[in-house]
Amino acid sequence: MEFARVALMPFVLPRGIAARRLFDCRNAGLTSFLLRTIRCDIMTDMTSRRKTLKRDWFDNQPGAWVMVMLPAVAGFFIGGPNLDTLWLLATWAVCYCVQFSAAHWFKAHFSRRYLPPMLTYAVALIVIGLPFLITHTGILRWAPLYIVLVALSMLSSWLRKERSLWGNAVSVIAASAMATVIASFGSTVETACVMPINAAHASCAAADVTAARTAIRNMPDLSQIFDLHAWWPAGSLPVSGLIATVLFALTQYGSVLVVKTMIRERGKCSYVAASWVWHVALLLLAAVPSGRSPYLIAMTVLLLARAVALPVVTRRTTLKPVVTGITEAFASFIAFGCIIAAI
């Protein structure tokens, strides 16, 4: 009977634990006493899986922090440092904490283990973000985009497809767009004038910068609810921020492809070819236009070199994932510096 009760464990335990315990029981000829001991040990394992662990409070991908925060930091410098951009930068960091803890919760199909981190970070986000929202209602113009991105992110986690190409694309778009979001709230005068709407806004000299900044900080009145220009006033889409967003999105998705050729899709020629084609296209995009920047050319050459070299090197040897992560972190910092210098 004792053995029969232990034999039922595969239906309630993770496959790996149950199979390992049963193998030990059947092959070691254990006594009833030992079987009871093992059963208690298994139940202890089940209980520990429901407890929140220290690692559940932190993202287990340090490289992800680099990719998430660098576009936001770029927007901070492009738009011009001030209290608004610093506030948004801190809020975005807490947003990411909420995102990865919520993603774990969805991936575990609402396991209680991940609730404490998610709820704690959510409260922190409310404390930091709600005052900004009340005083800067204009941030809501970005809400539709991020509602869609959050929904897709949680869906990918629920389906356990967060490492898929489309799941990675969602993360890249969300992070890269923050360069524009934060730059639009910056202190630089040009950000209020670089997106002319009509003749009255054709130049910075003719624009009322104070009025433009107020329009960016606030949502339009109900009487202007269908006025596109009121929703997106001059400066709410700064050209420098948009350029940074596009560049970060292209380079970061290239990094996604490189990592896949090194870890999850290692040895697959299709992914290696996709990575190489992507980086060659980036090089052409930087080198062909007449107003090309030497910083962007240097960046794309270096990124292409690492995209070609890493898969070739790992044909004969294996690199630990941490080495790949460090390499991509350096590549992200190189891209960050070149993008800032070019803009």
Question: Would you kindly provide a written description of the structure presented here, covering whatever features stand out?
Answer:
The protein has 2 domains: 2-50, no CATH class; 54-342, no CATH class. Helix content is 69%, strand content 0%. The chain is built from 14 helices and no strands. It has helices at 2-7, 15-28, 32-50, 62-79, 83-107, 115-135, 143-158, 165-183, 209-217, 228-231, 239-262, 269-287, 294-313, 321-342. Helix 4 runs antiparallel to helix 11 and helix 11 packs parallel to helix 13. The chain crosses the membrane at residues 63-80, 86-106, 118-136, 142-159, 166-186, 237-259, 271-289, 295-314, 321-342. It holds the Pfam family YwiC. InterPro entries: YwiC. This is YwiC-like protein.
Brief rundown of the structure:
With 343 residues, this protein is an all-alpha fold.
Distance between the termini: 73 Å
What about the largest sheet?
none
Q: Averaged pLDDT, please?
A: 82
**CA-based shape:** globular
Computed CA radius of gyration, to the nearest angstrom: 25 Å
Strand and helix map with partners:
Elements: H1 2-7, H2 15-28, H3 32-50, H4 62-79, H5 83-107, H6 115-135, H7 143-158, H8 165-183, H9 209-217, H10 228-231, H11 239-262, H12 269-287, H13 294-313, H14 321-342
